[in-house]
Protein 1
Amino acid sequence: MKCVIIDDEAKSRTVLHRLCENYCSNLEVVGLAASVVEGIHLIDEKSPDLVFLDIRMPKQSGFSLLEHYGSECPFAVVFTSAYDEYAFQAFKYMAVDYLQKPINIEELVEAVGKVQKSLYNKSPEELRTGGIGTGAIDKIALTTIEGYIFVRYQDIIRCEAQGNYTAVYLTNGQSLLITKTLKYYEDILIFKGFFRVHKSHLINLHCVRKFIKGKQNLVEMTDGKQIEVSFRRREALLHRLEAIE
């Protein structure tokens, strides 16, 4: 999988390049650019699958680059920024992920995994829209010991890691033990309105009843369960919740 890095700060480009080389074996960095103009030329030349895109840059922002390609954008985008106030706007541009600097290695690897899984299963247009459109399938096959159970995305309230298994909680009060890891389903559900709020919890944003501030930030789901939100994911979660129509 090919990627390019677009960032006006030389140190940030170098650090991200090194992280990709050291921790993302499935990723090939084919070019670096210091501005939107350089980035457009690089993208047109290299045709990357993924673009790591800084937001706040001189003259033009990272959003300008996406506006240049419009609805025909042929690559997936992971935004990188030192500022969390852009997260809401970033997700409106259908970014696969939003990495806040300094970039966390685990979050980088997860973001790359999401892109790779989507490229195997979706067209570029489906990647940007989450597969919503005419004839879109609204069910997921959950793997159990007995076989497969087909469940509508909107019927899943939350998923909780149980070692190498995942507990899936449904709107009808039923719970299922799935023979796949939480990470496996995160890569699929992230494009269907789900968000990983903690290493052990993936939630349906449409099933959030309220956000609770305190020593621990919590979300209360429609089934009454209160789930801890990790500090690093708090701002991105709030922006995603604001974006829900």
Protein 2
Amino acid sequence: MPLSFRQVGPCFAAEVSGIDIGKPLTAEEIAGIHEGMNTYAVLVFQAQFIDDAQQLAFSRSLGNLEEAIGTGLRAAHEYRLPTTFADVSNLDKDNKPFARDDRRRLFSIGNRLWHSDSSFKVVPAKYSLLHARSVTSKGGNTEFADMRAAYDALEEETKAECEDLICEHSQMYSRQLLGFADFTEEERTRMAPVRQRLVRTHPVTGRKSLYLSSHAGNISGWPVPEARAFLRDLTEAATQREFVYIHKWRVGDLVMWDNRQTMHRARPFPVHEPRDMRRTTLVGEAPTAAQAGLSHVA
């Protein structure tokens, strides 16, 4: 059965059939997946009951892995998974759900804001691949927004205003939106802001998209209140229903998305139910902007 795609989102996102990602991919399958990502930006692979080694092999066949080091508040001795995975679960190293007031859990609530993975890194992420090992009885959906369609819908005057803007991204910006400001000096240094272009052009399709994220807290050369109001307005426009696909997770689902072309956010789920989600991430090609003249996070 050849690789095929069925669109499931309003203007993007597709379910993939005709492939077993637990087996080595052919060159044709690899090329087909990249082509599907260029077109749909989000791909859903259902009923893929794979283990860590198979997820890593599938991910590496598509590009170079980004190491998940220093992106959360788990100390090294608290890691549940190797750093080839971003642990997007609510579980501690003993596979027990975090307590409601656990600092690590409170930090992870920032994932409920619209964002792009690793936009707070100098070289931001390309693809993210999230596999569901266990899901909760309700909630926990992931919503995706098509930043290409959002850019296309902007008025020409707004497109022109956005074209050359540089934003500053930090996990501290996103967490402060939720009232989480309890950072150590080491964390403040590690999470220092980086610069990213607000408008990105896809290297293959040439299509432009907005590069938005809750991690974006300033626009270079703008007063902070004006920058944040402008970014908030853009985010509201970009996450309207006609640009959003909602994925309802089932065990075995693997969802893959292009962080250069989409934003996403997690939705709430029961606090005390285990939710085991494991993400592999492919590193991007290069910085989107030169790193100089950064402001400090308040």
Protein 3
Amino acid sequence: MLQTMARKETGSCAVELLEGEIPDHDGSSWVYDKLIVSMLLSREGFEAEGRDRALPDGDWQPIGTVLVTAPHREVIGRGPGGHIRALRCVFDPPRGEMAECLSALTPEELTRALRVEDATVHVLLRRILRELQNPGFAGDTLIESMALTLLIESIRAIRQGDRSEKRGLSPQHLKMIEDYLAGIEVGFPSVSDVARLCGFSTHYFGRLFLRSTGQTVGQYLANWRMRRAEMLLAETDLPLKEIAYRLGYANPANFSTAFRVATRMTPRSYRATRREAVAGTA
């Protein structure tokens, strides 16, 4: 049973933050009279797949972080239940060109809509969520405009397939990652932590990140860790034990080994060399 934790109605849609338990389902179906774009914010134990009723029984699609259900089209789902937290944008029945486009969607496109991994769609949903939870000036107008853009981008993603993988992560995603890492005081984030931040599965996020940056997420995080280590060694008097702790290493020995492999210097030698360089400049 899902409970509504927050809700905002605009001129063309209702935005809802939901949380609760989804029961086990095996071949159950659903039909809505409105178009709904949903983002799963957490899915403890919830894994499912679905397909359009018009498709053969074998054409199942894993249900992803973002899913779109078109009005008056029957979707069949199966999988274990679990606890979820989700953002849902429920749109009034589209008219004109939008309605014609939706009615022309093929069963294959509608099944693909159950796993929308387009970067623009994900960014818009995250931005709508932030405004719903922390409303600011002209919040209703902002949500309305973002929701309309979300509607258009969602339909484009369904019709054109996944464009995100071709162009990589958006600038907004890259900025989110930078801000997230800059705010870490203690510990070392995992690849799945960063992927979850951007709203993607770990595997899919890795492909997008590689296309955008030319390096794997693991390489990027390792380089970030070493840059932070160099800064702490050069700019603070913290003991190696404390630096190792802040960087998420199990002990100072592991930190020293990793630092020596990455820089060809021990942490103590690096600190001494940087101090001498600063003193010489002064």
Protein 4
Amino acid sequence: MILPPIEPAPTPLPVSAELEAQLKIYETLLLKWQPKMNLVAPSTLKVIRQRHIEDSLQVFDALPKAKVWADLGSGGGFPGIVTALRLCGTQGGIVHLVESDHRKCAFLREVSRETKAPVEIHRGRIEDILPELPELDAISCRALAALPLLLEMTQDRLEKGTIGVFLKGQDVASELTKTPINSKILFRLLQSRTDPQGVIVLAGTGDLKGGVGP
């Protein structure tokens, strides 16, 4: 396939004092739970803000009109919890967190209680849960799988208008060339703000410029 050009990174939306406070609570809880389970790579603990939080903030920035999200393989909550905190106070805003590990689900539940993040946590396999979720504006994931597999898992949703927002690394070009040809699904690539080799891949049949919702 002909690869689309990599466009500039999404414009960062303002971080309010309230959001900053919620993000700090989240970071504190992550550091508290980290010794019990591997929520993030230990080598990144000293740079949580840039490596994980800032990286996740740009997911919502890439599609700011989306209100109803599913986050696949949520793990420690990146980017799903961060997206949900962005949606606090937005009528109808919610993120469906899909995670199979019961311990990580317990962590996500505590974060949602402490921060009041608008989430619904679903424990189980993606292929079982995703078809049962309500209509979605967007699907996100981070470090979950190669693009061909992500598209296979989400194809039905993407073909119905949901937009995929996938954080990918330096292998994105190779992954895109291995993607089965599908005339319905289009791609838009945005440069990552936090990783010079990172790319945000938007995929779907809807408006990849961000025109989701009213």
